[in-house]
Write a structure and sequence with these properties.
Blueprint (H helix, E strand, L loop, with lengths): L1 E9 L2 E10 L2 E8 L2 H10 L4 E4 L5 E6 L8 H10 L8 E8 L2 E8 H13 L6 E3 L1 H12 L6 E7 L3 E8 L2 E8 L5 H22 L9 E6 L3 H11 L2 E4 L7 E3 L13 H12 L10 H50 L1 H35 L1 H13 L4 E7 L6 E8 L2 H14 L4 E10 L7 E9 L2
Parallel strand pairs: 1-4, 3-14, 4-8, 9-12, 12-13
Antiparallel strand pairs: 1-2, 2-3, 5-7, 6-7, 9-10, 10-11, 15-16, 16-18, 17-18
Helix pairs in contact: 4-7, 5-6, 8-9, 8-10
Length: about 450
């Protein structure tokens, strides 16, 4: 059983729901209406939290060559070297559908605002996602047979979202919406659906068949859906939840009130809990930077602990040796004294010795297993200077390989860093992979460099 809290922050207030996955079913076990209710729930049982950003997200779908799709590293390199639009001051993530890459980008300041607010509630999210990802998950989970090509309209009191997916092409259109009267709702939805369907058919090569049926959910009633369908001559169907796999707590008084937020909140949690769905996480990249410090802390602590226990062992061994000498000297004088006083001491020291050996043995094995990382981290850290580590990947222990991404103010510093590593003689191969430079108003120039370090 897995438990997850799905949240969205809006107007300095959180709303959310609690989802429990048991076997192949999902239970919406409770709704969160306010900060106070969340704090009360979080204090009783702290669950992992997925948070959906309530800020604009820019989406672009582009084609990639086969050589760019080899692995995660080549895909990310293609994004950084030729981004479809500026990635300055932004957080991003992506999903590959077939041979096409769909890039999701959000402003860094919007992510920082959200994380700052969550920190005030003592929440560290396991994923920070977006509405586009959540709506995709919500539809595909409930209509798996339609996942290759579909059109999905999501309506709230403030926004109209139209998600279109055709094979490998991903589109989301979001526009302000005001439901002042039935006539204005009818006019707005009809106009926007006609405009978008025509644009995608003629400009983006999405066939007309993709719009043969449009699914609709949110703040809309059946009579209005029928009128829109008649006006556009397109089949519109009210979205239905897969009740065999999604259950709700019996007679939950808040279900109707949360009906409008349900697609986003439930879709975000499905992206984390269900394999094969879309999990766009804007804080994933930050974890790579934190990995460097995590390696240093973990393995240096192990080395310190082994050193401390080794010292304790040596002190114990010295005490044992000293007592052995005393036993030999006093043996001549008093056999009875040896029997009554020194033999118990000998036994006690011997037991301590065996206990210390048992504690040291597994630690020595762990240090041997990670000796390469301890030595490599120490060497790299010593030679860095003004260079910053952006990413640190230890590929496989048997390969003794490290993929290192660094950021430097100049190429001279990188050259000196590589020279120092070669002169150390520790790595058998030091392979530069790629480099690029960036400059902004705040930063005159920054060099980003990728290196492969191998020790055979």
């Amino acid at each position: 059983m897995k438990r997850l809290v799905s949240l969205i922050v809006k107007n300095a207030e959180v709303k959310g729901l609690e989802v429990v996955k048991k076997a192949n079913q999902f239970l919406v076990s409770g709704f969160i209406e306010s900060n106070q209710e969340f704090i009360s729930l979080h204090r009783k049982k702290s669950s992992p939290a997925v948070v959906t950003l309530d800020y604009p997200v820019f989406i672009k779908s582009v084609s990639l060559r086969k050589d760019q799709l080899k692995n995660k590293r080549t895909i990310e390199d293609s994004i950084l070297h030729r981004p479809p639009f500026s990635l300055k001051d932004s957080k991003w993530n992506y999903k590959v559908f077939g041979s096409r890459l769909t890039l999701f980008v959000v402003k860094s300041k919007d992510v920082e605002k959200t994380l700052f607010y969550l920190d005030s509630l003592n929440v560290t999210p396991v994923s920070l996602t977006c509405k586009a990802s959540s709506l995709y998950n919500y539809f595909v989970f409930n209509y798996p047979k339609e996942k290759e090509s579909f059109a999905f309209l999501y309506l709230t009191g403030e926004l109209l979202d139209i998600l279109v997916f055709h094979k490998t092409k991903f589109f989301l259109y979001e526009m302000p919406f005001e439901s002042s009267s039935e006539g204005s709702v009818l006019a707005t939805i009809t106009k926007e659906l006609r405009r978008i369907t025509e644009y995608l058919q003629f400009q983006e090569a999405v066939p007309k068949e993709s719009f043969s049926e449009i699914f609709i959910c949110g703040k809309i009633e059946e009579p209005l859906v029928s009128k829109i369908s008649e006006e556009l001559k397109i089949k519109l169907s009210i979205f239905e939840i897969n009740q065999r796999r999604i259950k709700f707590k019996a007679k939950d008084k808040n279900l109707e009130e949360f009906k409008e937020q349900l697609p986003v909140l439930l879709g975000a949690s499905l992206g984390v809990l269900e394999k094969g769905l879309l999990n766009i996480d804007f804080i994933e990249q930050d974890r790579y930077k934190n990995l460097w410090n995590a390696y240093k802390q973990k393995f240096l602590k192990v080395a310190l602990l082994v050193s401390t226990l080794s010292l304790v062992f040596l002190v114990g061994a010295a005490a044992f040796l000293l007592n052995s000498i005393i036993i030999n000297r006093t043996a001549v004088d008093s056999q009875e004294k040896i029997t009554n006083e020194l033999i118990p001491v000998y036994r006690e020291l011997n037991l301590k010795k065996e206990s210390l050996l048992k504690q040291i043995e597994p630690l020595e094995k762990e240090v041997v297993n990670h000796r390469f990382l301890v030595e490599a981290v120490s060497l790299i850290d010593r030679e860095l200077g003004d260079i910053e580590v952006e990413r640190f990947d230890f590929v496989k222990e048997e390969d003794w390989q490290i993929n290192l991404d660094i950021k430097s103010p100049s190429y001279d510093d990188i050259s000196q860093f590589l020279r120092d590593l070669r002169e150390s003689g520790y790595f058998t191969q030091i392979v530069p992979v790629s480099s690029r430079s960036e400059s902004t108003r705040e930063i005159k120039e920054a060099i980003y460099f990728k290196i492969k370090l191998i020790k055979k």
